[in-house]
């Protein structure tokens, strides 16, 4: 045990912090950036709480130097950020926008000068609106465009960026975006939503090929992975019905990604999960081969477990069956603390999830936890100090859960806290604060919270073990 109460992690374990472009950058009309589906969605009345948008966000586009200085003081080994596709290709295809590339050039150089490894995510949900207008992820051409975009970025930044994440949480992009309708583009669809999941995977495979081809051509090193938000799903009771409900949800949340990526197959219970909605019309021979290109690492985002029970279809609306209507319902998680997102805090579920994924997929590559953290009210303040003890407890518990998974044989090699700073939390707007740095949205001033200092001390203590 260290003085932070943290179980031991391997000496070369990597510590990082994460953010995403639309959530922090702002400057949506600057540098030749084109509109994304999140600009359109956030400006749609009623879509985001209080009508908030990412127009200004944390103004990171102008303040990235200050933010890198915060990362340097924090002492992280690596910083995970995302690249806004509409800054690189304002309409999602065609030649690169030099100003967009120049911004990420500056950011990467600033990080390297601070001794921090840049880890770049190519897609954290800000699809160019022009591609959405042509069908978005429902159509195959968007996956092809994504491969071209990946190549542009890799050719330019690949001399300094060696670790790439193709997609962030395709579950959310596909199903919260096109079935639940609480993320951009905000629709409620059936078969087309399932098609988006396939095209996102295909986009991942095509981008992987391009990242590797660019590296080979230039004689560079490139490690490629994908980030999934895997769910730990728990049946409400031991009944056959509730266990079958969890099987369907496993497919919707986890297996739809993991089976093709790591097993070269589609989940065998698709028909049971989706019925006639999963008609396969969006698949072509050879797709599985592209999707299943070997991964150098698997990124896993984790926040909380979910308890589920069997539930009938919503008969009130039989014609509105969407891809997430798989006859399951959430059951409240009693007896544990809930965060400001109303998410239950159950660190041991994180260990269970990691151990279970390793057991089910023996070919699982090394794992990085690419996001984990908690939204808290952050009301306990003196002067400009934020005493976010709940967040510290959350992080300590979940890092402990990672250490337990490592002990149980899962090859977890690093952890990125979500998030470096408070930011635009999608449909919840600015009210859900995940940062270890507080952002005052009036002045845009940044103030490290107690959790920042706690994480900094932990990283320092860990670094001392390396020498
Ligand atoms: C994840 C997202 C990230 C952030 C956290 C709280 O689903 O990848 O952008 O919103 O949740």
Automatic annotation (TrEMBL):
Enzyme Commission number(s): 3.2.1.21
Keyword annotations: Carbohydrate metabolism, Cellulose degradation, Glycosidase, Hydrolase, Polysaccharide degradation
Enzymatic class: hydrolase
Molecular functions (GO terms): beta-glucosidase activity
Catalytic activity from the UniProt record: Hydrolysis of terminal, non-reducing beta-D-glucosyl residues with release of beta-D-glucose
Keyword Oxidoreductase annotated: no
Keyword Hydrolase applies: yes
Similarity-based family: Belongs to the glycosyl hydrolase 1 family.
Name of protein: Beta-glucosidase
Organism: Streptomonospora wellingtoniae
Phylogenetic lineage: Bacteria, Bacillati, Actinomycetota, Actinomycetes, Streptosporangiales
């Amino acid at each position: 045990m260290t003085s932070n109460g943290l179980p031991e992690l391997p000496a070369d374990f990597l510590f990082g912090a994460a953010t995403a472009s639309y959530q922090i950058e702002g400057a949506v009309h600057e540098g030749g950036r084109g509109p994304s589906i999140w600009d359109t969605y956030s400006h749609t009345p009623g879509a985001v709480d209080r009508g908030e948008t990412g127009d200004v966000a944390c103004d990171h586009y102008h303040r990235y130097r200050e933010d890198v200085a915060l990362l340097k003081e924090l002492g992280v080994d690596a910083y995970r950020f995302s690249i806004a596709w509409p800054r690189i290709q304002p309409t999602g295809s065609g030649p690169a926008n030099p100003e967009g590339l120049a911004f990420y050039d500056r950011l990467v150089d600033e990080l390297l000068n601070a001794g921090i490894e840049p880890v770049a995510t190519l897609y954290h949900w800000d699809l160019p609106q022009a591609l959405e207008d042509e069908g978005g992820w429902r159509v195959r051409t968007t996956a092809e465009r994504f491969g071209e975009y990946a190549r542009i970025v890799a050719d330019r930044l690949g001399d300094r960026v060696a670790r790439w994440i193709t997609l962030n949480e395709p579950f959310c992009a596909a199903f919260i975006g096109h079935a639940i309708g609480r993320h951009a583009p905000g629709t409620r669809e059936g078969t087309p939503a399932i098609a988006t999941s396939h095209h996102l995977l295909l986009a991942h495979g095509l981008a992987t090929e391009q990242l590797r081809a660019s590296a080979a051509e230039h004689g560079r090193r490139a490690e490629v992975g994908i980030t999934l938000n895997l769910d730990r799903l728990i049946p409400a009771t031991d009944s056959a019905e509730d266990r079958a409900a969890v099987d369907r949800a496993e497919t919707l949340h986890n297996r739809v990604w993991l089976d093709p990526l790591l097993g070269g197959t589609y989940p065998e219970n698709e028909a049971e999960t989706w019925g006639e909605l999963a008609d396969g019309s969006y698949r072509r021979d050879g797709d599985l081969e592209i999707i299943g290109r070997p991964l150098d690492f698997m990124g896993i985002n984790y926040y909380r477990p979910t308890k589920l029970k069997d539930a009938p279809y919503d008969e009130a609306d039989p014609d509105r069956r969407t891809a997430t209507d798989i006859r399951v319902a959430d059951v409240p998680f009693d007896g544990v603390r809930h965060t400001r997102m109303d998410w239950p805090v159950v660190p041991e579920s994180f260990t269970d999830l990691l151990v279970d994924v390793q057991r089910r997929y023996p070919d699982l590559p090394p794992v990085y936890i690419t996001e984990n953290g908690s939204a808290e009210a952050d009301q306990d303040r003196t002067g400009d100090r934020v005493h976010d003890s709940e967040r510290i407890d959350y992080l300590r518990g979940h890092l402990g859960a990672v250490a337990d998974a490592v002990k149980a044989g899962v090859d977890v090699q690093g952890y990125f806290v979500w998030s470096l700073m408070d930011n635009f939390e999608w449909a919840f707007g600015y009210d859900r604060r995940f940062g270890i740095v507080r952002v005052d949205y009036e002045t845009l001033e940044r103030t490290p919270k107690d959790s920042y200092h706690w994480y900094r001390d932990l990283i320092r203590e860990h670094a001392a073990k390396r020498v």
